[in-house]
Amino acid sequence: MGASPAIVMILFVAVGCFMAYPEAIKLKNITRLCHTKSIDTVNRKFPGPRVITREGDRLVVKVVNHVPNNISSHWHGVRQLRSGWADGPSYITQCPIQTGHSYVYNFTITGQRGTLFWHAHISWLRATVYGPLIILPRRNESYPFVKPYKEVPILFGGGPNVSDAYTFNGLPGPLYNCSAKGKARETYLLRLINAALSDELFFSIADHSLTVVEADAVYVKPFETNVLMITPGQTTNVLLRAKSTAPNVTFLMLARPYATGMGTFDNTTVAGILEYETPSSSLKNRPLLKPGLPAINATNFVANFTSKFRSLATAKFPANVPQKVDKKFFFTVGLGTKPCPKNQTCQGPTNTTKFAASMNNISFALPRIALFQSHFFSQYSKGVYTTDFPAFPLIPFNYTGTPPNNTVVNNGTKLVVIPFNTSVDVMLQDTSILGAESHPLHLHGYNFYVVGQGFGNFDPENDPPKFNLVDPVERNTVGVPSGGVWLMHYHFDVHQSWGLGVAWIVLDGEFPNQKLPPLPSDLPKC
Prior knowledge:
Helices cover about 5% and strands about 40% of the residues.
């Protein structure tokens, strides 16, 4: 991942741009809110360094692990076309990098431009191991919107369970040096990244409107808003048009959670400061303007906001929505319970149970060796996983009505197998088991089109005619509405650790350029 200019190596070769980024995972003492603790970092930076590249570039990133924890790096949102070995989730595409070992991630940015990010993908280490991945347009190509005067990444952070604070770029608020200075009349591109582990967040800047122009490294039809909602794992680029004259006022930037579940969470607000460059008047003497934010459970606002996202769908940036579907899946998404292990105290609905999460009542169990390797060497797959993940719920019920009495989930490493070049329709249905809530889901290595969403139970007769097959938004992470439907691992990390996820096997195609290359020689061992 990125490093200081002194150790970034950029080579230009005939086939394109080759960029090599050395990355060292090291411990560093960080002081926040008057407390100092040792955290895992990349190149001793928190958040980690920016990786800046262009569409079409090949990235080669060597990760060296100098901390006691195992580690892996996930390139969140990158379309891994024949480079699945570089995706990064531990025990899925690779075994983690053990202490004192290294691994080289090698992949090409194909057909993407905008904002993504990278993060650790094991346990909850991405609470501190994360940073922006900025993909510029190809050289001599421009944005499909006004060229910004300056580009500013803003990373939202938040730890597991109930953290002490949310953060902007690793800082908890205006008591620290957490301000941004702007010039009058200029246009700024804010690259917003929700790197928090488990919290969807509202974001607003006092007395300023924002124009959304990109989501998950895909351009969208521009629209204006005063408030954004961004789920864990999502990125959104917005244009901020500065005022025509520099006001002698300070503007707060605020973010706080959107929450619909019954569990505990960090119900606090993180603040940053936007001030204009003026020849006089210090920050302390200026009036302070504060933006309004929706109620913490403003589901209707969220539904209205997310419905505004549309692909550009132009000749240069088309929306290639499959008009014919080869396979259909219907996955229920929600919570459940597991028996509490003997001699342990569990914080579940009862003293004898603990919380779990599942899709189609299957709680995903991580294997002890990487699924990708196991599949590649098919003789080793027996006993590691099975390929019988149910395409539909085994026991249908009123998903958003009164929940069933039996909430116990089944454990398993069950996978879905689909042939190469298959068009897939996936319906994700939230359930009311242990309370309906919003579920941010992320699909590794691919994008998808969001052709429909809504509340209540999916109606297979009346809902499909309402699907948007013309200009639906293309994303890699989406929020399944609370008590609703979305048409794929969970990006609330607490629920991911509870087993909410499913792995897909996409088979090789017929031709050499449709097959997975052999595994890298330095692929970590479990």
